[in-house]
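User: Hey, quick favor. My workstation is busy. Could you predict this chain's structure for me?
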Amino acid sequence: MNKVYSMISLANKAGKLVTGEEGVRNLIRSSKLKLLIISEDASDNTKKRMSNSAAFYKVPYIVWGLKNEFGSCIGKSERSVLGVTDENFSNGIKVKILDIVRKNERPGGGFIE
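Assistant: No problem, here it is.
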């Protein structure tokens, strides 16, 4: 497990992570979400709905990671959408993902703010 998944796991244990489309979309609408993470293997419909919501409410989002890895790092079944509600966890996850993308450890992904 790389450092991003460790940060996601820690955010989950701290109660600063929300999973599932409805829960995440509700937090986007209430402006409480600091970062939206959409898995690369999520359906096109999910990617479009979630990215449009995030863009409309000006929530930073990224398409990165895989559903099964999201689920395994938080001890649940596959998850295609994760929402981080804490600014510090959000910044930490962004930095770690940027480091990985720059080192080309994992192709794809990118921030859209």
